[in-house]
Amino acid sequence: xxxxxxxxxxxxxxxxxxxxxxxxxxxxxxxxxxxxxxxxxxxxxxxxxxxxxxxxxxxxxxxxxxxxxxxxxxxxxxxxxxxxxxxxxxxxxxxxxxxxxxxxxxxxxxxxxx
Amino acid sequence: xxxxxxxxxxxxxxxxxxxxxxxxxxxxxxxxxxxxxxxxxxxxxxxxxxxxxxxxxxxxxxxxxxxxxxxxxxxxxxxxxxxxxxxxxxxxxxxxxxxxxxxxxxxxxxxxxxx
Lengths: 114, 115
Description:
The complex is a heterodimer. Helices cover 0% and strands 57% of the residues of chain A.
């Protein structure tokens, strides 16, 4: 079964507010990645955080990783209407026959109102 | 090429027919993934190729589904005797060695509709 689960399933905010999405997973990972999807087609990679990292920044994005709780969060600061999309976390397992395989959650649908 | 290319973009087929979906990964990428996404749902893992290793086929939903990757490059996902529940967007992605923490690059997907 897929091991990444995002929370909440849907998030609706006003422009300028911050958006926080969470991801939980089940097994040991090599890294955790966040992706964005517009219009139900291809996903675009946003940020990757390694298992030995706790926090990472990229522009308006901030990702944290807590391996003891098997959870991650994605924070988008000063959101814009153009940030409206589905956001997915993906975990890369670190061992065994599934080394490198990416598991995706169901995603969080973010809507940013102008 | 500049990115992952999938063809066709859209495919409408009659129930019971076979379909082939193609994925051209980024040159040099050793890992290739196939996922399926139904409307409003997450990504369902189908199959994963990594270099010369045996593919991880554990996500294929039935024996009607098969995939191959020729010469470590182009991949074809074949669905035999299609059913209406096979209707979905099929996404392909490729990556450099995943164990070295590289991200996956996705194609735009093939929207399959079985009527």
